From TrEMBL:
Cell wall formation. Belongs to the D-alanine--D-alanine ligase family. One of its GO terms (biological process) is regulation of cell shape. Residues 100-301 form the ATP-grasp domain. This is D-alanine--D-alanine ligase. It is found in: Cytoplasm. Pathway: Cell wall biogenesis; peptidoglycan biosynthesis. Gene3D superfamilies: 3.40.50.20, ATP-grasp fold, A domain, ATP-grasp fold, B domain. It comes from the Bacteria. The gene is ddl. Keywords: ATP-binding, Cell shape, Cell wall biogenesis/degradation, Cytoplasm, Ligase, Magnesium, Manganese, Metal-binding, Nucleotide-binding, Peptidoglycan synthesis.
Amino acid sequence: MTRVAVLKGGMSSERDVSLVTGAACAEALRGLDYDVVEIDVTQALWEQLKAANPDVIFNALHGDWGEDGRVQGVLDMFGKPYTHSGVMASSLAMDKHRAKHVLKSVGITVADGGLFDRVEISREHPIALPYVVKPNGQGSSKSVYIIRGEDSQQRAAIAADVAMGEHVVVESYIPGRELTVAVQDGKAICVTEIIPNGWYDYEEKYGANAAKHVCPAELPDYVTAICLDWAEKAHDALGCRGVSRSDFRFNDENCTRDNVVNKIVMLEVNTQPGMTPTSLVPEQAAYVGIDFAQLCRWMVEDASWPR
């Protein structure tokens, strides 16, 4: 019987979501008769893995130390097959600023902006209004600010938000609809539209009053085609493995086939997409006939070393 260690929890601000992801995946794998050991990851991960002695490692971590290449480095050293992306892709995708350069190099439209000192933003606007300020190396839309005008309190809050890091991403605010595409083994699945009650933040993703998902999204065929193509290109350009998820904004105002490439902007690529009951990747997989347990089995079977 294959012994699978499911890594969950961890030390990031997304620990709670990872615990739910890990528990769901562990339950599904047990139902498939895998021998499952759940590991709530600490700084003693090496010792935890040695004690578990797994055949395969299922990475269900999110955020710092889970999807930024650092845990992947430990897994490479440990020498057992593991799921999701390896060190390079994980680190690069998590670094939003540098990832945008790679995406742009393969013809994907990204938001204008750059990397700025967090405290300096409180003193003067770094780019034209409106703009978005977000951490360069975190996920789940925590500490995301939309600056629409001269709100000194909001900019002071950014300066005080040390969890964002010293340097933060500032990019032009992109109006429009929220879209996302899951890629499995290099092949895009479909497009989902996310309809939030407000800004698609952490609470909208995981709270009790979570955003509505429309799967598949009701879009012109040429919009769907570009989103699928760009998601596959991003997965390949960043070197992703297993499953990834690309997020977009689509401004459908006066959109035509001729100008569509200027109406779609890729926001980021997630190498460790959520696998909670409300997560987007399992929904898209289900749409094409892959249930949650089958998706988890595929991830285990796809695991390899090194990644």
